[in-house]
Amino acid sequence: MRKENSTNFWNESQIKKNCGMAYTLSVLNGRWKPTLIWQLLEHKRIRFSEFKKSIEGISERVLSTQLKELEADKLVTRIAYNEVPPRVEYELTELGLSMRPLLDSMTEWGEMHRDKKKESDRTDVPK
User: Fold this and answer.
1) Among residues of the chain, what percentage have pLDDT more than 70?
2) Does residue 1 have a pLDDT over 90?
3) How many CA atoms lie within 13 A of 10 on its CB side?
4) Own/partner pairs for 11-18, CB < 8 Å, 24+ apart?
5) Which domains, and CATH codes, for the chain?
6) Do 58 and 52 touch, CB atoms closer than 8 A?
7) In 1-112, which ranges are E strands?
8) Three-state secondary structure call for residue 73
9) CA nearest 77: which of 89, 85, 65, 87?
10) Which of 84, 64, 68 is nearest to 76 (CA)?
């Protein structure tokens, strides 16, 4: 968290205000956010415990924080049921659903780049 009166905070605010790509990257900033969105695209509605089981390596604290940030950015809706034991589910909003083409493109580019880089790394190895 940056101080609101710092130069870094001001620079970040300006670039997000003036550049759609920078703003998009700031919304997706977080190791698990694209994975959380992808899980919701695939399953429509997921309980917190199902997220925890399906994403190896994520802590409950980080999962909770990332979901709260996605909710604050209006990409995810949290549905709390008044039951015992309590049940909470998450689903994408229309805005969240609109991210599918972006994530599809990012996946396609990432796979292409990873394959090209592996290929390049193999040919760069001295013999």
Assistant:
1) 92
2) no
3) 3
4) none
5) 32-121 (1.10.10.10)
6) yes
7) 45-47, 76-81, 87-92
8) coil
9) 89
10) 68
Residue 85, preceding peptide bond in cis (omega within 30° of 0): yes
Distance in angstroms (rounded) separating the CA atoms of residues 99 and 117: 26
Q: What is d(CA 117, CA 33) in angstroms, rounded to the nearest whole number?
A: 25
Amino acid identity, residue 102?
A: L
| Pair of tokens at residue 109 | 């580019």
pLDDT digit string, tens, across residues 14-39: 776 778 888 888 889 888 999 999 99
Would you say 78 and 71 are in contact if contact means Cβ atoms under 8 Å apart?
yes
> What's the CA angle centered on 24, arms 21 and 26, to 5 degrees?
110
Burial group, residue 115, by CB count within 10 angstroms (0-12, 13-18, 19+): exposed
Count CB neighbours of 36 within 10 A: 25
